Structures
1.
Amino acid sequence: MRGMMMKTLRFSLIAGLMLVMAPAMASASGGGVALKHAEISLDQETIKAGLTVFTDVCMGCHSAKYVTYRNLMDYPEIGLTREEVDDLRGSNSLMEGLKTELAPEDAAESYGVVPPDLSVIARARRGGGDYLYSLLTGYEEDPDGKVEDGNYNHFFPGNRIAMPDPLAWLGHDDDETAELEKQARDVSSFLVFIGDPHQLERKRLGRWVMGFLVLLTFVLWMLKKEVWKDVKKH
Amino acid sequence: MSDKADHSRRNFLYVAAGGLGAVAAGATAVPFIGSMLPAADTLAAAKTEFDTSTVVEGQLVVIQWQGKPVFVVNRTADMLERVKGHDDKLKDPNSEAGEEVQAEWMDSEDKRTFRAIKPEILIVVASCTHLGCIPLFKPTAGQKDWGDSVPSDWAGGWHCPCHGSYYDLSARVVKGSPAPQNLHVMSYEYKTDSIVVIG
Amino acid sequence: MKTGLFKWVDDRTGLEGIIKSQLTEYPVPKNLNYMWNFGSLALLVLVLQILTGIFLVMYYKPDASLTYGGYTVAFDSVERIMRDINFGWLIRYMHAVGASAFFVVVYMHIGRGLYYGSYKGPRELLWIIGVVILLIMQGAAFFGYLLPWGQMSFWGATVITNLFGAVPVLGEYLQQVLRGGFAVGDPTLNRFFSLHYLFPLLLAAIVGGHIHALHVVHSNNPDGVDIDHEKDTIPFHPYYTVKDAFGVGVFLLGYCYFVFFQPEAWGYFIEVDNFVPANNLQTPAHIAPVWYLTPWYTILRTFENKLLGVAMMGASLAILFVLPFLDRSKVRSARYRPVFRQMVILFFISVVVLGYCGHSAPTATLAIVGTIATCVYFGFFLLLPFVHKFEKTKPLPGGE
């Protein structure tokens, strides 16, 4: 009996340790600079502000093809009206995804790479929303003076990034930094949301499921103990 | 602890566990069956726009709506006349049989006779209510154009090639046909004089 | 009416007798601990995977044709499941978390078998069937991972199919048969899809055989001793039905936590690079198989020679088959075998270390660590035939 307790204790200790180490290990293997912490928020105000940054700035070069104009109305977290969506989409059908006007060939010529689609970018980069925020606020002068301004980024692996500072006009002076940080945070929150649009619903449902399972497991535990009284008697 | 007390406790726990387990099983079934219902993007394709001015007088076109074929007919004055006067030959002249053969816009006797918001433009689902074939459009009266595939008192309408059902020019099913109902209508509205939004 | 119907079926199949002898009245040792719950959990996860898999297949399209933005029809279909299909996100996450849950449960199950000597006679064939199950699981997981057609899908498949090229004489031919072309592409995707559907169904059949083999020789127990059927067994129902049900409850707590709150598990269950569409002209900076295949990946990388690496990786799995015949001790359970106990614990640690190395980027230090862990791994098996000669076992309970 005691032996089993010790074993179970040892096992849960190791398992617990591994579970705690897991996120640390996950980020450790990514390597690179420590990221800034972004105050990612998935409230409607932030997401809507982020959508504005996305359509005004990012869509100049990037698409988000898995997000349709219809989604902008139907996702309660975005909740645009039919009129607002009609304004945005112009002659595009409601079922069309958000697509940039910039042709891939022209982009490759101007920037050297084709700007990636941003639908799942928050899930495709280690650090997610924190990475996106750090990147957008991480443009600086190359200390070695080799890379031209606008293409040197503190957080991009290798520092030399093909995307020129998209929020460059917001500058990095003290008064404009607040606005820069806000827009970076808003668009990062938007991108985190569209990467996994059902995440809020998922967590909501999850709380009910976990609550129910705690109850169910407790009842099953009581039942097990009750039934096994027969055996323990011998 | 007496045996009786133990057993009632045990039974209670069995029932509690069984009940909660049944709830869990039922709750688990919901997302799986739910996933088989039409998806968000499938449902979004529920409305179709169409410009009726592209249909010439007397012409029938077939368009798609929700993946189904739909007849749009620009009926001439003569066709509209031939729709009247044979109610006794029809199974359901006033489209009362069920939800699918009537719509909210069918609010007058005329609307029930012509089965359209604008009487010239008839819009019906092109699926025979028997087993789903697309009926053949035979608009002219008599047997001159159609031989004996149509009865001698044929006033114009549709004839289904699969099992021989007949519909009049308002797509109402004729008595003696295997088809049980008139061709189905759906809710639609005119956005402009000629552009109609179906669904 | 129910009794009448049941009797009608029973008269024609003997169903009642089967249910009684194999389930409700089936005799089980009464001293089993919770390590014996993992078999039923493995069966549960298999059913979950097949169920979620069938529903995913209603919408998934195995087509590597390019679509807008550098994506593919396959990748698009997965995103459609996540965004547009009712509860599609839930079914997808259940399947992805379930794959990892399957291996967690099965590794615990195997660990139990190793520690308590469940592989020893008369359960050698039961163990061997289990190793077959492990291999088929690994195959199914490998095929399944290609399906989303992300960067990790594509490059993982490229690396592993390249391994087969190392086989002498037949290598090139094997590669072409696996890939259906000169490189991983649409033909590969389609056949992996077919095999990913097939393997779990094979599993279902083989698991049936596994359970049948168990029922002939009956369960081992934590003391590893042969038990008196009359005195020391209890019927499976209600004792182990309620205990297994409780185990399912605990399992579901962990499983649903991940499904609803951490489905990607920080990149361990769904890797970050797999959200980047597959690009055959650019390898991701860091290729690693999913965590449950990492120990064998390390063994492969330990050897510089490609053929030797493949051979040793194969050997590390093949040696599991002969385990019952390597261990000559008459005592089964590690509880009463002080030397074996240290060895098997070291073995477990070596597997964890091998897994950690396989997941991390290769460095000089990790290469050394990996080599040591590989030696411990094989050392365990190679030392086993000699242990019984010098090990002083503790006295077994019941004065045997």
2.
Amino acid sequence: MKRIRHSLFSLAGLVGLLALLGAQTATGQQSTVYAVVVSTKMFVVGAANPQTGIFYQPSGNDTIWSHTGPTTIRAFDFGIASVSENAIMYIASGNGVHRSTDGGKTWKITTGWEITEVLSLCTDPHDAETVYIATAYGIFKTVDGGDSWQEMNAGLDRTFTSCVLADRFTPGVVYCSGEGGAYISRNGGLTWSRMGLSVGNVRVVNQHPRDPQLLVAGTETNGIYLSTNGGRWWEKSEAGVDHETFYAIAFDPNNPDILYAGGYVTGVYKSVDRGESWKRMNSGLDFPTIHALAVDPRNSKTVYAGGYWGGVFRSDDGAASWQGAGLPEGQVWNIFIQP
Amino acid sequence: MKTLQCVLLICLAASGAISQDLTRGEYLRQYEERAAYVGSRFDTAMSASYYTIAVRYARGSGIAIADSLFQVALQEPRGDMFWMFPVIGAYLHGKEKMSAETRATVRNAWKTYAPYRGDTENHWAMYYASLFLAAEQWPDLPGTEWFNGKSSEENREEAKEYLIHWMDITTSIGQGEFDSPDYFAEYAISMGLLHDFARDAEMTKRGTMMMDYLLADFAAEHLDGQYLGGFSRIYQPAVYMPLRSVASGFAYLYFGTGTPSQTGWLVLPALSTYRIPEIIYKIATDRSERYLHKERKRVRNVIRFGPEKNPPVYKQTYVTKDYGIGSLQGGILQPIQQHTWGIRYTYGSPYTTIFGLHPYWSSEELGMFFPEELKPLIADVVASKGTYNNPEKWTGGSPFERTFQHRNTLLVLYDIEPGTTTEHIDGFFPMNLEERVVDESGWILCKAGDTYVGWYPLQPYEWIEEPERSGQSKNTIGRPETIATEKDEGAWRLRSHFLQNGYVIEVRSQEEGGSFQNFSTALRSHLPEADLRPGSVSVRYTSLEGDELVFAFPQQRRLNGKEVDYGDFDLFDGPFLSAEVGSRKLTMRYRGLRRVLDFTTLTIDE
């Protein structure tokens, strides 16, 4: 596979780079929005299920969703490793990892039978050929763009993982989370050690776009935690938080003081003080469980929320109000914005 | 025409009542009749069903029509792995007969339609067996010609690797979706297709050997068309109407038992060249001697909330010519559709079973096996399996339930956590029982033909009359052909609301215990002693044969003063089948016959 020299980003982790791009190119253009739809209501394996997978709204069109890639694969995550006409894209799915090297025109499953239930995917911002995935059976890594994969579970107490994130500032530093808690690797996933967060079942970890020491974690039963020292210590962020289960954490790439969070029957929470306190912002949002959040790097007022069976909602005023943006009843696992 | 069909059905049903004394020649003659009957519903049909298409091609009945139907069916492919196996099956039965245009349409479908691989063992068996055969049929194509972007060679190698892995693990530590009356078909069809059509001689042999393996496993726990014992997965209709299960259709086809069936699940097997070896037929049908059969299986992949990926499942089944009683050890061994214990007998219809359970559901149970988010998981599952969180349901395991079986005596204990999803236990008693008497001794005494069942509840209970079951059946999807449509006689539900609870079950036949009166009299002097304090639930009971069973929840089991260790269970252990854990070798025995399936050498020794 050709070495990729273009800018790199993935849904899970490269918000900072998006911020940079957004800041440099904010000319009024719109971004391309990708929604990762696992399923719709009444999904049954083997039945005549509606189309699912990766849907996108091309730049300049915020009303119609188009589809790319396989249609019934239970997609959980999406990443782009090369911004060009022949973009290299990845889909994390129940079938494994799908890769396109021609901007989504054709796809190949790059994993074998051993890798299944891929819940999170992260391209490495420091090495275009390296991709990490979090699966129900642990962390796997490729260093050749998906041609081969290695299991990377040394040090994990439990192998069920739901999030993996490559540090965008320091090569080799990777975070993951799952049933066992939140972990850090300083050697590209070869070994993992627990971060200072004592709770288990950590659903998601995200990193501040400009401050590498600020990490935010969403947990299954313990709400939101913040670390200001790269994961050594964590503090529960409780001010204004009335819920316990958080699946999505998003930073505003243009204003790092602003964060959004969402989870099980939470609606959308917004913080304007780097996660110190939160306020619910649900006007017009008619589904309670949020599984995906993303801020448009070109326009911080534009925020997308993906619902669990609720489709996509968009806010054009920084979450003050929301309106439906399509894919109704979709179980939207993730949303990704390409400037 | 209807009269003719009735006569045919009566003849087939009569031929279904054959004994194990049939000569091989006579067995094969009757088998061909049954196979022909299965296909007869399809060979003149005009529906765009892959089963119709397969039968038409195989029997040469309207090739042009088959071509046309295939073209129509492939206009909108759907069904994932449930699409893959009938399509490749139909293609392989017709590829020499179909038009070039139809061949091209089939080929194109494998390029343009991307099936989901699924998330469990039966999905993967279908997906990879089908993909293997398809990749063999079009052997030298690049990835651009396949739905998954992999070349023919890559697909073939990956599929073969998975299938061998599955066979290895199944013959070493047991099947994960084991003994499923409803999912037996998915494995048997996949392996049968390998037997019939694999070009790779190794995979042909493996297909044949796995067919033998699956059917021998079924045969040893089979009675009159019914699968016996505890099961990994069963849909609600089949749990209380055992002969409505898909596996019973296979019993009809291969063993000549049960009722004639023309379910589509039987089409590809009925077209197959596979024939069960004589020894498996004998094992399935000779019930001249009573026996205990033990097995070890494995829990489906545990992805969280457990330290072990595939913990062992211990199953035992006591089999007579009149009834079988079987159990798993209890606890959560499978999601949603576990059947922990049950009695099935040859009397009556459609209800031929008595069983009990603690109706339980939780996001933790589902999270053990499914990777999606925990809190919405129940809603996810209920969207397609409506009975899952129904407190009246008749399927599912519970972490608060454990069993201790000794031949035809069974102790079941519950220590239910307060506040859990349901705070009651239920027992299923069909209304078509000849007798259901609540004796002053405390025993509930039931008579089902020559089978007698005693059920001693350890706590007070109530009876709830349930005149018909079809309302709940409608909530179960995926197996529409098994759903009852007629009004039936219904059942009595025994419900007890005590958290520390349990019962003792005794089953005997007329052959074992004489008259029902004798059985009832004998039980009156055998009363259990129970300690039902929270966290300290136990029962002591002396069986009709004088064996003393002491059982303390969850897993202290003593028989006649000696500790019982389920960890000693072999993969198969009974008069007909034996296999050691890790051996990858199954030995079948029946009187002078012997057959050894050795997966380490891929040989069959007779």
